[in-house]
TrEMBL record:
Organism per entry: Nocardioides bigeumensis
Identification of the protein by name: Xaa-Pro dipeptidyl-peptidase-like domain-containing protein
Record carries keyword Hydrolase: yes
InterPro entries in UniProt: AB_hydrolase_fold, FrsA_esterase, Xaa-Pro-like_dom
One family name in Pfam for this protein: Peptidase_S15
Extent of the signal sequence: 1-25
Domain of life: Bacteria
Keyword set, alphabetical order: Hydrolase, Signal
Family, per entry: Belongs to the AB hydrolase superfamily.
Residue stretches making up the Xaa-Pro dipeptidyl-peptidase-like domain: 57-303
Amino acid sequence: MTPRLALAAVLALAATLMSPLGAVAQPPAPAAGKARTVSSCLDSVPDPGTTAPVQICYTLFKPAGATKRAPVPMIFHSHGWGGSRTTDRASFSRWLDHGYAVLSFDQRGFGESGGQAQVMNPAYEGRDVRRLVRMVSRYGWVQMDGRNDPRLGAIGGSYGGGYQFLGALTSLQTRGKPVFDALAPEITWYDLSESIAPLGVVRTAWALALSAAALPSDALPPKVYKALVEGAAAGTWPDGSIPGTENLAEFFRRNGPKWHVGEGRRLDIPVLFGQGTTDSLFNLQQGLANWEHTLTPKARRKSIFVAYNGGHVLPQLLPAGLTVTSDPCSQKLAGGSFADLARQFMDRRLKRIKTPPDEGGLTGWNRYHLATPGGACVTTTSVAPTQEYAVGTVATTTAVGAPLPTKIADGPLRVAGSPYLTGKVTAIGLENRTFYGFAIGTSPLDATLVSNSVLPHRETSTVVGVERQVALPSIAVDVPAGQSLFLVATPLSDTFVGMGSRAPGAIAIESTVVHLPVK
């Protein structure tokens, strides 16, 4: 059975959970002063092991009034995984009507673009972005800051956020400065392997869903399909340690900001972050890691972090989750949606429009703005824990069993940031795993997850009374009077289906202390 057929079979079992173009000549620049929409493709570097250039296709929207004497900034846009570029001019009216040009493009392997996705590899997708930047630099009506350096911002979510960090960081690597002047990425990642497989424990539902989205266009290299099947079957992120298996850890090693940060690169440009508090793939931790590690302190002073209820969300049934969609923080900051906030952000950072706050100008710089499930927006300068709660022994079975909530504290209580727990861990056997999250309710019987997600803890061998620090999902929640905040320990999670312990057993944490960012 081929890897793709094997993957199709796995997807069928998991259903309850969840052609390159020929060469096209570059079009002439749209006529000066006239609104125009042009679609075409350009040549980029071949896929690994091939020699034919890969076509990257795009649609370019020029606003009315843009001329060589009145040049305009450029906004890049791209789609999420499995999607394609936007060709409807009306979709970008908020940008075009405010004097921005927009270029929306198909990522390698998707839409009309050729090749196969290398999943934001600097040597491939990184060069695709550089080719597009070089192309728009030749249009006389695009505002320029220097040779091959257009005044440039970027928007897009998920995979469409990944290209933004990729483009800025690879430009920093090759040119010594990021060619982008401002970014507005949504629900994207810092470390791709850690997102899909935290601690090497695969988020099966998401790994299979992302693979399924790539199947229609055969977007992924065959070895990646094979590796994802291997990971689903073996219960661990494939790293090549088993003879004859693939190495996804190596494939994804350079494919995110974490690798660039490890090489000493950090962005000194303003970034408007949009991250999902209920995102169970690129969770809130991933956005917070980008804020802390990918930006310089100077850049953070010019940036804003917004977390809304939403993102990559699957039904959370085991343990029971809470699905909420709302964005109170963008409403608070910009009087509208995140897209409205992004346009105002680019006005300030690309057009240098400095409207005072008392006249409707943006505020909230160098702050976290985190949405709660109840619709509040918590603004804070720190997401670090501030208080400790001793909860005694937290024990759960592994491989089988029901979620076990342990009460942390009674409401009213506001928590916003990145918690963790400490304690003495005992686990008997090999590859013991359990999953932890936060829930609120009047009792353990009606408590539901507040972030719609859990994180795994993994012990690969027997340990007895070993001090551990265990990461917990980042959250923002108001616990009302009459309800309590619970720590949920569960041997099973439908997001990590099939990724529980390899054999029945137990994990016990004695002298457990939960460290919470209480506001």
